[in-house]
Amino acid sequence: xxxxxxxxxxxxTGYTGAEVCRLLSNHxxxxxxxxxxxxxxxxxxxxxxxxxxxxxxxxxxDPELLTADVVFLCxxxxxxxxxxPALSKRMKVVDLSADFRLKDTTxxxxxxxxxxxxxxxxxxxxxxxxxxxxxGSITAAQIVANxxxxxTASLLALxxxxxxxxxxxxxxxxxxxxxxxxxxxRSETEYLLGELHGSFKAYKTTGHRHIPEIEQLFGGPVxxxxxxxxxxxxxxxxxxxxxxxxxxxxxxxxxxxxxxxxFVRTQGAxxxxxxxxxxNTCALYADFDERTGHAVLVSVIDNLVKGAAGQAVQNMNLxxxxxxxxxxxxxxxxx
Amino acid sequence: xxxxxxxxxxxxTGYTGAEVCRLLSNHxxxxxxxxxxxxxxxxxxxxxxxxxxxxxxxxxxDPELLTADVVFLCxxxxxxxxxxPALSKRMKVVDLSADFRLKDTTxxxxxxxxxxxxxxxxxxxxxxxxxxxxxGSITAAQIVANxxxxxTASLLALxxxxxxxxxxxxxxxxxxxxxxxxxxxRSETEYLLGELHGSFKAYKTTGHRHIPEIEQLFGGPVxxxxxxxxxxxxxxxxxxxxxxxxxxxxxxxxxxxxxxxxFVRTQGAxxxxxxxxxxNTCALYADFDERTGHAVLVSVIDNLVKGAAGQAVQNMNLxxxxxxxxxxxxxxxxx
Amino acid sequence: xxxxxxxxxxxxTGYTGAEVCRLLSNHxxxxxxxxxxxxxxxxxxxxxxxxxxxxxxxxxxDPELLTADVVFLCxxxxxxxxxxPALSKRMKVVDLSADFRLKDTTxxxxxxxxxxxxxxxxxxxxxxxxxxxxxGSITAAQIVANxxxxxTASLLALxxxxxxxxxxxxxxxxxxxxxxxxxxxRSETEYLLGELHGSFKAYKTTGHRHIPEIEQLFGGPVxxxxxxxxxxxxxxxxxxxxxxxxxxxxxxxxxxxxxxxxFVRTQGAxxxxxxxxxxNTCALYADFDERTGHAVLVSVIDNLVKGAAGQAVQNMNLxxxxxxxxxxxxxxxxx
Amino acid sequence: xxxxxxxxxxxxTGYTGAEVCRLLSNHxxxxxxxxxxxxxxxxxxxxxxxxxxxxxxxxxxDPELLTADVVFLCxxxxxxxxxxPALSKRMKVVDLSADFRLKDTTxxxxxxxxxxxxxxxxxxxxxxxxxxxxxGSITAAQIVANxxxxxTASLLALxxxxxxxxxxxxxxxxxxxxxxxxxxxRSETEYLLGELHGSFKAYKTTGHRHIPEIEQLFGGPVxxxxxxxxxxxxxxxxxxxxxxxxxxxxxxxxxxxxxxxxFVRTQGAxxxxxxxxxxNTCALYADFDERTGHAVLVSVIDNLVKGAAGQAVQNMNLxxxxxxxxxxxxxxxxx
Lengths: 335, 335, 335, 335
Prior knowledge:
The structure is a homotetramer.
Chain A: E1 5-10, H1 15-24, E2 30-36, H2 45-48, E3 70-73, H3 80-87, E4 92-95, H4 108-112, E5 126-127, H5 135-139, E6 143-145, H6 149-163, E7 172-177, H7 193-196, E8 201-202, H8 210-218, E9 223-228, E10 235-242, H9 247-257, E11 264-266, E12 282-289, E13 294-301, H10 305-319
Parallel strand pairs in A: 1-2, 1-3, 3-4, 4-6, 5-6, 7-9, 11-12
Antiparallel strand pairs in A: 7-10, 8-9, 10-13, 12-13
Helix pairs in contact in A: 1-10, 6-8
């Protein structure tokens, strides 16, 4: 391909922003040309983030000056809703924050603590979970809302079964995530390695922000509790749900639903989070507990790839008319 | 105290046996005088297990020659049921295997894969979960069956609420354990640090052996799935159970039930497994999900202490008429 | 013992302060009666530090009001030199900071960045490395300067050989420490678990503050570089030093030197840091590289126990006339 | 490129073999068409190694039937020297074992415990450390001996300084490696996560097999001790060497030497092993200790990439006339 497309990453030194930069460094058609950071403007990306080798010099974010084929918004919640509408008139926008994930914008005050400033945006951004929504809505969109990490892991397991009529009752989603899900700028003592090493705990046992986003696509209430794993990356969602389906019926449903999907795999043994480390793959496993009538579903992703930056690049590929798999690894870094 | 009592540990180089040795090294009234190992007989304990400093020389286990005030049986399942009845005529026996945990011995073939060889033993050994059973049954017993680790964590959270009528439906117990629960002699590739470091996975998603033991005391069916944490020690059981109780009602129930217990504590934030590292404490936390009508219970223990060797020493203290807390740390090794 | 002695811990919620509290919770003769924290005054210790079970309520540090048999000063460097002289008139003082470690107080500006405010204190506090100094200096002292963690690990290996004339040239000390050595209040991104998990790096490759303290007792210059291990606790010092001694000669020297020491052990295989986790033991190992004429010494300690709080309690025991080993575990928490 | 070249990986389910497969899955010009495993023949690669997605079915290794453009030999030491000479008549051979690393084959009995069976092979295979040898020797070779992991990390730091006359005396190389360096088939208890988690230790304190390989290119004796890090991947070599060079002189030397190298970088702060996780990059840092007259060099690589599979693919690229960087990531997977 002779001409390469250009990408901007806003908030490039956070975990999700830097991960978009890493993935673009191997992308055959798209090049990172602008990376922004308010704190480290003027520093080359390789110096601010020594695991990256890009020589792009970090700059401050100025929405008015920005030119690119696609921009990834990787800032804290509440920023994208202010700048995405204007930016989308000049380029494709992939928003990795939560700002456009909930179509019912009246939910933002309760779950996120702020009023949405663009509640009437039309068309409303597409929801970028390609395996579960109409892909046409993503290819046609100027703005795509990139899903939450817990949401992606949970829905990829649940939605095919829900559509197949195989679940009943309220699913219990017991989810576990590596600490990178909390972001890179946490200054609380509790995120120190000394505190978390060799340890494990539940947090936000009720009321986590990803609940309404899961329910939006699932179509009903879910019981959800997340936990913090003493690892950098990886999500495992274990879902216990009343069901009358056999184990074989669950696999049949998944296999049909994901027959042509390059990034979703089923397997016969419970997946480990590390098997998808650094990759855009979601691995699924199911069992059936006849004693209590529950299906047990296990879904693992890399929270920063399929749960964030990888899915964002997947959405970008669709929006720009590129092969959906371009630049996205499917093999995990193991051990 | 002028005369010290003597203890034997059978299987002293495994994780639970060595942990009994460690705890006895700080015990004010009981001294380790014999430690057995089939493979390392002739080696001083400090050489076989360099974290221990005992100079006791390991010997082979010969039930007929053994003399001690108390013996801890820390072998694989299936051994204790052969030797405990005879030993119990000469000394107190604490069995850390599963051999006497299930009163209904017809369950052993299905869950453990062997027939019980002493199904009619009378009196049947006491079940050594002091906070949940009649302590008199332990003090009077010649043999105590030390409970399973997942069982201890789960039941300490559930039983008070069950007795208080605060739970309904089938509890979903989503449990996570450090790898020491799998023992020290695993030669499978999957237990290598290279495979597990930075990773997390479910295992035995249905049908784990601790299920009938949980149900025996809980009194009804439970949904149970365990997971492997990439840490040495620690169990966290997260229990989702339909309930009409408020958060306050759960805490009131626990607080009353455990008012005088030195080893069970409730707290206002989710406990981390590391806070009980090396200690005999169980820490409990509760939340209530009004959206779905579930109580969320979190229980953490050190699987090798309150989940094995510490509870065994606690049972020994009761059996020998010593203070229940003797030699048992309540503070965790943090960070 | 009928009357228990009383101890105060100043700075009880930091890693070293809390570790003193943990050790005192098992101490047969000394009781923690006052614990201070400027930030969390008014909170019970068990609530501020959930791994502790003490019900002592944290208070602000007021040197004038303090009464106790012994006080542990566990604050940042620069505080103890202001309060220790006055406190020492009323009680025994163990200072865990660096304030009294260097007898040549003119070194403080260069290595610590501040002028010493009590340069002429007389008698100068004893240096509390019991195995290497005259124990009488500790038992007689009102103030003891508790040594640095890297210093303890390095000198316990080196000093006997130096005194035995077995080393020549400049020792190369390549040291590795768990993150708790950096303290609990680090808010830099680099101490987050996300940054350090699964990683390892050198830091302060030249000019670390423990160098003059090592040289003070060793009596000559040393080459020293520390590294950060992705673990909570533990120090391993690997020392490469030109020598004409055989491996056997090194062990003979150590064995004679430490014959009666309860906390120093030699062993025939390289020790792992975890074998001393939570214990006051130092484990030593030696090899000899005939190809290059170097002795290779390996020394491991728990940086928070023998490297800080445990050695502080050991010093306290000596200062109060108690058995030196009282309340100090020698067995490590493994696995 | 219309025609893709074909590659075979012999020993595909070990850590280095599987890593070659992972790298080839992203290679633009070379395709994995045959993967062998004696134990798992008949199983698809994705099932034997769930982190890989290749559908190639594992087969037994039959040197006579093999056809490919390039073969990677990833077996235990002692196998390649038997099959490589014949294979090299039909295809390019990259040997990841130690069989052809030492030109002086009389060293094999002492360091590896076996006699070399092809001591007179002519031409002797090229040594595949592209940055330090004549690249023409690699491009012309039919067999390339892929260097050891510790060797690569150590020599990339040392050789430029040695050639520049900046080092004197015997370098002390204190090296630390993640456990994947020990391979995937270790069944010893000591490699269990339970034993190694949260721990660190030296091993093979003298006499490690990589010493003669380091000395072969360095040209003089080195003092070398390796350590085991409680992580999956990553090597950090800290080198203390007497020198009269300033810090600036070291950087100048490196910068000139590596000016056009895509896989070697210098940086102003000590690198962490994780910054090169999954990448083919070597990161270098230097400091100078004026007090003792030593340069301190720090070199980090991913032991499975630049230390094994990545360097093997780099050699393959050179041997097949492809761009040296094809298919090789330079950015690390962080956090």
